[in-house]
């Protein structure tokens, strides 16, 4: 697979579309164990990312994702902005001066992103956070040839497993055992991110050229 700058831009646009479509559901999930604003915060942030992206041009992938990261950090409220921003910022460091991202580079970028999420959020797998989607998807990208449907299914299954987990981080941790009744909102928004990536590969960004 080779993800071009244009394909990666389409990934971001598709993420935004999915976040906008699901913002009410994301905030409903967050109402159960948080402030109830995750969907609207993410929608505002990714909409701003798309506005900035459409007004600029990018020769390489690192600068694209650095702008994505900094916009999310500044525009998304709560913990989500710094966490998602950190993830994309760490990935951008791995993708500097690259005009395409192959599977090996994607894995390196995602590995850096996961480490950034762990450090910034002081979280581990099983804490019922976005990490519970990012880490299994990283394992998949590192160890298996990427196929669109299996990438999407890996993210979906990981997201669904957060229902039943007891939250150990953030506001959700105050709910203790009651937090196990629903899917983690950050896990759901992370699923949308990787669902969007899988769809962009189908649309032509994941060719072997």
Give your account of this protein's structure:
The protein has 209 residues and is mainly α. The chain has eight helices and two strands; from the N terminus they run E-H-H-H-H-E-H-H-H-H. The mean pLDDT is 89. It has helices at residues 5-33, 38-54, 61-75, 80-94, 103-121, 131-143, 148-161, 185-205; strands at 2-4, 100-102. It has a two-stranded antiparallel sheet with strand order 1-2. The termini are close together. 68% of the residues lie in helices and 3% in strands.
* Average of per-residue pLDDT values: 89
Characterize the main sheet.
2 strands, antiparallel
Rounded to an integer in angstroms, the radius of gyration calculated over CA atoms is: 16 Å
Shape: globular
The helix/strand series, from N terminus to C terminus, equals EHHHHEHHHH
Give the strand order, joined by hyphens, for the main sheet. 1-2
Strand content: under 5%
Intertermini distance: 7 Å
Helices and strands, with pairings:
Blueprint (H helix, E strand, L loop, with lengths): L1 E3 H29 L4 H17 L6 H15 L4 H15 L5 E3 H19 L9 H13 L4 H14 L23 H21 L4
Antiparallel strand pairs: 1-2
